[in-house]
C-alpha cells in the first residue's frame, strides 16, 4: 500500500530560481532565503520519498486563456522545464509516475472531482522553484514527480474548501495504490504578494503567520477562509495559498488520525515581491 508520509509547503518565486541558477544564492539578499531551506534539503535526503505529488500553479505557460483547467494532473512519463522568456531553467527534466498518476486520476474522478488529464506539459517556476529549494542543484531530481496544476490565475478559481476536500480524496487514492510507495504531497505558491495594480508589493506578515498557525492546528478553519480574504489580506496572488490546503487535506489527522508533527517552519521577507513561507509536516 502506498502512503503519504509528509507534506511540504513552500512559496515559489521566479527570482529564487534565477538566484540559484546564476550563482547568487550566497549574496546578502538571497542568503537568508536559502538558509531557511538548509534543514529541508537534509530532511529530503533522509526521507527518500519514492514519489512527490506536487501541487502548483501554471502561470500561463503550459495553459493560456485558450484553455483553463481548474485541476490538471500530469500523467506523462516526463515533463520539460518551460522557457518562460529567458530560456528554460538549467534544471533536470521532471520524471513522472504515469502509473500512480493514472490511479489517482481514476480514484479522484470517481470521487466527484473533475480532473483534466494532461499527457504533455512543460512545467514552469511554479513547479521547478520548489524542487530547487528542497533539493538544491542535483544532476537529477531525487524521485518521480506527479505535477498537479491548479488554476489560481484566471477567475473563477476554486475555493479553499474544495481544495481541502480534494486533498482528502487524493489521500484516499494514494492509500488504495497497491505498491509500498513513500509519497510526499507538496502544496506550493503564496504567501502574501500582489504583483500588479495599486497595491503591488503588498506583504502581510501578521495575516500570513496567523494563517500558517491555522493551517497547522485547525485546517478546517484555514479551509473556511473565504476567497475574498485571500485577496484583501494577502493580495491578488495570495490566492495561490489555496493550493496548500490540498496538501493539508491529504494528511492523516483530517481523516481522524493523530495530529501531524511540525518538522520545520520558516517565514522570510523580502524575496522579490513575495513573502516566503515554508512548512514541513510529517504524519505521525
Ligand atoms: C513573483 C511571485 C510569483 O508567485 C510569481 O508567480 C511571479 C513573480 C515575485 O514575487 O516576483
Ligand atoms: Fe506565482
UniProtKB/TrEMBL annotation:
> Into which EC class is this enzyme placed?
oxidoreductase
Residue ranges of domain Extradiol ring-cleavage dioxygenase class III enzyme subunit B in the record: 8-276
GO function terms (MF aspect): ferrous iron binding; protocatechuate 4,5-dioxygenase activity
SUPFAM superfamilies reported in the protein's UniProt record: LigB-like (SSF53213)
Stored InterPro entries: PCA_45_Dioxygenase_B (IPR034937), Xdiol_dOase_suB (IPR004183)
The UniProt record lists the EC number as: 1.13.11.8
Could you tell me the keywords of this UniProt record?
Dioxygenase, Oxidoreductase
One Pfam entry name: LigB
Q: This protein is called what?
A: Protocatechuate 4,5-dioxygenase beta chain
This protein's species is Sphaerotilus montanus
Which classification does the entry list for the species? Bacteria, Pseudomonadati, Pseudomonadota, Betaproteobacteria, Burkholderiales
Amino acid at each position: 500500500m502506498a502512503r503519504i508520509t509528509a507534506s511540504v509547503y513552500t512559496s515559489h518565486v521566479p527570482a529564487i530560481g534565477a538566484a540559484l541558477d546564476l550563482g547568487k544564492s550566497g549574496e546578502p539578499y538571497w542568503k537568508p532565503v536559502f538558509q531557511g531551506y538548509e534543514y529541508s534539503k537534509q530532511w529530503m535526503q533522509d526521507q527518500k520519498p519514492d514519489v512527490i505529488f506536487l501541487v502548483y500553479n501554471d502561470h500561463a505557460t503550459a495553459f493560456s486563456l485558450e484553455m483553463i483547467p481548474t485541476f490538471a494532473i500530469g500523467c506523462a512519463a516526463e515533463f520539460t522545464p518551460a522557457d518562460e522568456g529567458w530560456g528554460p531553467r538549467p534544471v533536470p527534466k521532471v520524471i513522472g509516475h504515469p502509473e500512480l498518476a493514472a490511479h489517482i486520476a481514476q480514484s479522484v474522478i470517481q470521487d466527484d472531482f473533475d480532473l483534466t488529464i494532461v499527457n504533455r506539459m512543460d512545467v514552469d517556476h511554479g513547479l521547478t522553484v520548489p524542487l530547487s529549494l528542497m533539493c538544491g542543484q542535483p544532476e537529477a531530481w531525487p524521485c518521480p514527480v506527479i505535477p498537479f496544476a491548479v488554476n489560481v490565475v484566471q477567475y473563477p478559481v476554486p475555493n479553499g474548501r474544495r481544495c481541502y476536500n480534494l486533498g482528502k480524496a487524493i489521500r484516499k487514492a494514494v492509500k488504495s495504490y497497491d505498491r509500498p510507495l513513500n509519497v510526499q504531497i507538496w502544496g506550493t505558491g503564496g504567501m502574501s504578494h500582489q504583483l500588479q495594480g495599486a497595491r503591488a508589493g503588498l506583504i502581510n506578515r501578521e495575516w500570513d503567520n496567523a494563517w500558517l498557525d491555522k493551517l497547522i492546528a485547525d485546517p478546517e478553519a484555514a479551509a473556511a477562509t473565504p476567497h475574498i480574504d485571500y485577496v484583501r489580506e494577502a493580495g491578488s496572488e495570495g490566492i495561490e495559498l489555496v493550493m496548500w490546503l490540498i496538501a493539508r487535506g491529504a494528511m492523516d489527522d483530517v481523516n481522524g488520525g493523530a495530529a501531524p508533527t511540525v518538522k520545520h517552519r520558516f517565514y522570510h521577507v523580502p524575496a522579490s515581491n513575495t513573502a516566503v513561507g515554508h512548512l514541513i509536516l510529517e504524519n505521525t
